[in-house]
Write a structure and sequence with these properties.
Layout: E1 12-17, H1 22-33, E2 38-45, H2 49-59, E3 63-66, H3 72-79, E4 85-88, H4 90-97, E5 103-106, H5 114-122, E6 126-129, H6 132-138, H7 140-149, E7 152-155, H8 158-167, E8 175-182, H9 192-196, H10 200-203, H11 213-221, H12 223-235, E9 243-247, E10 253-259, E11 264-268, H13 274-282, H14 296-299, H15 314-324, H16 328-344, H17 352-362, H18 372-389
Parallel strand pairs: 1-2, 1-5, 2-3, 3-4, 5-6, 6-7, 8-9
Antiparallel strand pairs: 8-10, 10-11
Helix pairs in contact: 2-3, 4-5, 6-12, 6-16, 11-16, 12-15, 16-17, 16-18
The structure holds NADPH dihydro-nicotinamide-adenine-dinucleotide phosphate (NDP).
């Protein structure tokens, strides 16, 4: 059984928001292999009550929370006799996050994770952030809360975790370029005409990564890289002109930082989320993972090329949202969430997803949000407006 070796890492308390998801189960796989290093406080899900209860029992959690209150009776039944507290609803989710675990892993999908992530940040401890939509929507509101509370924000997204590692020990003032790499997704080589007809089943089949449905569709449209561009803009404030995207189909180089002296530092690793999650869980130490080390001789070739924004306009739309500032990223995120759900439901075509985002941003923006409540209001209002745009396929 592996263990974390390093300074002051032994037995930290951990809360996992989104325990039943792809990042959640990868996180728990690492905790399972390092039982002595973590004491689980709270685990949350949306509605997968039976799965959540099984995990809460296995890891001896103090509390299990379902965001969807209608699933609380099922959770209570599944936890009967365990001594584990069960709770449900949005406020219970925030309370779980506010318990102030040493490290909270924010792995809920979508802006639904924003309020609990902010509650964890307000505790001033470590927050391992996978939930990019929360940072994209809240932007400066979240980074200001991090600065105020003294929390440590540890990026889990593989690209941002790579950049975080490449920046360690360096002065950001010496950075000349940060390069986010992108696999290009399952439709990387597709012509526009074929993209119009792409199906949900094709879109969720990522060539390199196994992920939840929403982020898989985002990878196919390249909106994932657009959201990551906005995420990087906030996490690494070097300025928008020093951020770029390169398509790297092998997903081996997870991102790079170039310095003024011509040195480029890159982080490489297998396409397995347990590597960046382990980096965040153990930071500033290191922990074992079951992932096989890279066999670069077998991989043979690493290739890079510029993104094709004619076929995949999402990265341009995201960059424009950063430049517009204010509420634009929150609006972009909300309309994208609605459009991705509509695509997965068979209501709109694949290429309509990014078209909807661009159309909505062009229609004018609400005032810039300056508090969590403002961001949530922008998100809710944008969702209502976005839903009106989801015309059925003809
Ligand atoms: P999944 O869809 O696999 O899991 C989402 C988790 O969030 C589940 O536990 C789900 O509960 C819970 N959840 C869903 N909706 C709500 C809600 N409304 N309120 C509260 N909880 C909810 O997502 P992923 O693990 O793929 O992604 C999670 C986040 O991590 C996303 O922001 C994604 O962009 C990011 N990320 C993911 C990567 C990956 O490899 N998967 C890589 C990098 C970043 P339930 O099971 O009950 O539905």
């Amino acid at each position: 059984m592996g263990s974390i070796r390093g300074d002051a890492i032994l037995s930290r308390t951990l809360t996992l928001l989104g325990a039943t998801g792809s990042v959640g189960t990868s996180t728990l796989d690492l905790v399972r292999r390092n039982r002595e290093a973590f004491r689980v406080i709270a685990l949350t899900a949306n509605c997968q009550a039976a799965e959540l209860a099984a995990l809460a029992r296995e890891f001896g959690a103090e509390l299990a929370v379902v965001a969807d209150e209608s699933c609380l009776p099922a959770l209570r039944d599944a936890l009967a006799g365990s001594g584990i507290a069960a709770a449900g609803g949005a406020a219970a989710l925030v309370e779980a996050a506010a318990r102030g675990a040493d490290i909270t892993v924010a792995a809920i999908v979508g802006c639904a994770g924003l309020a609990p992530t902010m509650a964890a940040i307000e505790c001033g401890k470590s927050v391992a952030l996978a939930n990019k939509e929360a940072l994209v929507s809240a932007g400066d509101v979240m980074t200001a809360a991090v600065a105020r509370s003294g929390a440590t924000l540890l990026p889990v997204d593989s690209e941002h975790n790579a950049i975080f590692q490449c920046l360690a020990g360096n002065d950001p003032a010496h950075v000349s370029m940060i390069t986010l790499t992108a696999s290009g997704g399952p439709f990387r080589e597709w012509e526009i005409e074929r993209l119009h007809r792409a199906t949900p089943a094709e879109a969720v089949k990522h060539p390199n990564w196994s992920m939840g449905a929403k982020i898989s569709v985002d990878s196919a449209t390249m909106m994932n890289k657009g959201l990551e561009f906005i995420e990087a803009y906030h996490l690494f404030p070097v300025g928008i002109d020093k951020l770029r995207i390169l398509v790297h189909p092998q997903s081996i180089v997870h991102s790079m930082v170039e310095y003024r002296d011509g040195s480029t530092l890159a982080q490489l690793g297998p396409s397995d989320m347990r590597v960046p999650i382990a980096s965040a869980l153990a930071w500033p130490a290191r922990m074992d993972t079951p992932c096989a080390p890279l066999d670069l001789a077998a991989i043979g070739e690493l290739t890079f090329r510029r993104p094709d924004e004619a076929r995949f306009p999402a990265t341009r739309v995201a960059r424009e949202a950063v430049l517009a500032g204010g509420a634009a990223p929150a609006v972009l995120n909300a309309v994208n969430e609605i459009a991705v759900a509509a695509f997965l439901d068979g209501q709109i075509s694949f290429t309509r997803i990014v078209q909807c985002a661009e159309t909505m941003l062009a229609r004018g923006l609400p005032p810039p949000p300056s508090s969590l409540d403002d961001v949530i209001a922008v998100d809710e209002e944008s969702r209502i407006r976005a839903l009106e745009m989801m015309e059925p396929l003809r």
